[in-house]
Design goal:
The protein is an all-beta fold. About 0% of the residues lie in helices and about 50% in strands. The longest helix is centred in the middle third of the chain and has 4 residues. The protein is globular. The two termini are about 35 Å apart. The relative contact order is 0.16. One of its GO terms (biological process) is carbohydrate metabolic process. It comes from Desulfosporosinus fructosivorans. GO terms for molecular function: hydrolase activity, hydrolyzing O-glycosyl compounds; polysaccharide binding.
Length: about 325
C-alpha cells in the first residue's frame, strides 16, 4: 500500500458557494424604454458540487483522483432570460504554512474528457463557457483531475506534514463575453500565449527583503511571424529589477508597468517569433513572486500590439528550465 504523504485541500468558491448550490440573481430594470414600459431580465448563475468534493483529500505518488462539478443557468423553473458567459479561474497554490507539491498536476476537462487547461506545481489558469439564450435551462459538467506521477523519488522528497497543495476556484458571470476564450475551442484560440513563471522566494540575509527569479515565455500561435517583438504588462506589487538575456527592459514607468523589447542580436531565433515558435527571457525580482502579470500586450514591427493573449502563471518553482 502506498504511503500517503500529504493532504490536498480543495476549496471552491463560486459566487457564494458552488457546493451549497447558491443562486445568484441579478435584475436590471430599464424605465421609459417605450412609453413607460419596464424591461426586467432574470440573470441566473448556479454552481453545484457533488459528493466527490472533499477537503483534506489524500493522494500518493502514481495515484490520480477526480472531482466533478457543474454550472448551470437555472434553478427549478427559473431560467436566465439573457445570454450568459462565465469564467472559472483555478488557482493552484501551497497551503498556508506549507510548501506545494511540485509534481502535482491539476487538469480541468469537459464532459467529453477533453483537457481544457492544466498546471503542474503551482499557477493560475482560466476556463470559460457560455449559455446562449434558450427557453430551457442548461448546464455544463466539468472534471478536475489531480494526478501525482511516480518518478521514484517523490514519495521520500515530500514525506511529512510540511507539504500541501490547495486549489481555489473562483467564478464570475456576465452578459457579455470574457476576454479569455474557451481553450477547448481551437477556432477561437489566442494569437499569442504568454507564460509567466517564478521561483520559490528567498530572503536576503542583510536587507530582509524577499527575492525571486522570473521567466517570461512568448509563443506565437498565429500564421504570421512577429518581427522585432515587444511585450508590455503590469505587475502591481512585485518588482522586476533586471533582465539577464534575450530581451531589453526599456521601461518600468509608470510604477508597476514593464516593457521589454527583443534583444536586437540580428538573430531571427531571438529577435523574431516565427509561427509556432517561442522566445523566453528572465531575470531577478523583489517580492514573493505569487501575483500574475496583467494587461498584457504583444507587438512587432510588422503587426500592431495585440491584447489577444492567453496567460498562464506558475509560481514557486524549484527552478526555471
Amino acid at each position: 500500500m502506498k504511503r500517503v504523504v500529504f493532504f490536498l485541500t480543495l476549496v471552491l468558491i463560486m459566487l457564494s458557494s458552488i457546493v451549497a448550490g447558491t443562486l445568484a440573481m441579478y435584475t436590471v430594470s430599464v424605465d421609459n424604454l417605450a412609453e413607460g414600459s419596464v424591461v426586467a431580465k432574470e440573470f441566473i448563475f448556479l454552481g453545484e458540487g457533488t459528493d466527490t468534493f472533499q477537503q483534506g483529500l489524500k493522494i500518493a505518488p502514481s495515484e490520480t483522483t477526480q472531482w466533478q462539478f457543474k454550472v448551470k443557468n437555472y434553478e427549478n423553473n427559473i431560467v436566465s432570460e439573457t445570454d450568459m458567459y462565465y469564467k472559472l479561474t483555478f488557482n493552484v497554490q501551497a497551503v498556508s504554512g506549507k510548501k506545494a507539491i511540485e509534481p502535482l498536476k491539476v487538469t480541468v476537462k469537459d464532459s467529453n474528457g477533453n483537457a481544457l487547461n492544466s498546471v503542474t506545481g503551482v499557477g493560475t489558469f482560466a476556463v470559460v463557457g457560455s449559455f446562449p439564450l434558450a427557453v430551457n435551462g442548461q448546464e455544463q459538467n466539468y472534471l478536475v483531475e489531480i494526478s501525482w506521477p511516480d518518478d521514484g523519488t517523490s514519495d521520500v522528497k515530500y514525506a511529512g506534514g510540511n507539504y500541501g497543495t490547495m486549489i481555489n476556484v473562483d467564478a464570475v458571470a456576465s452578459q457579455i463575453p470574457f476576454s479569455v476564450v474557451d481553450p477547448g475551442d481551437p477556432s477561437q484560440g489566442k494569437q499569442v500565449d504568454v507564460r509567466y513563471e517564478t521561483t520559490t522566494p528567498w530572503q536576503n540575509g542583510q536587507s530582509g527583503i524577499y527575492q525571486y527569479n522570473y521567466k517570461v515565455t512568448i509563443t506565437n500561435n498565429s500564421s504570421e511571424p512577429i518581427n522585432n517583438w515587444s511585450i508590455g504588462f503590469f505587475l502591481p506589487t512585485d518588482k522586476l529589477t533586471d533582465v539577464w538575456s534575450n530581451a531589453k527592459l526599456v521601461s518600468n514607468s509608470p510604477p508597476g508597468y514593464y516593457k521589454f523589447l527583443n534583444p536586437g542580436y540580428n538573430n531571427q531565433a531571438t529577435d523574431n517569433i516565427l509561427p509556432g515558435q517561442s522566445v523566453s527571457f528572465g531575470g531577478p525580482a523583489l517580492g514573493m513572486g505569487t501575483e500574475a502579470i496583467q494587461t498584457i500586450s504583444v507587438g512587432g514591427s510588422n503587426i500592431s500590439d495585440t491584447t489577444n493573449v492567453d496567460l498562464t502563471c506558475q509560481f514557486g518553482k524549484a527552478s526555471l528550465n
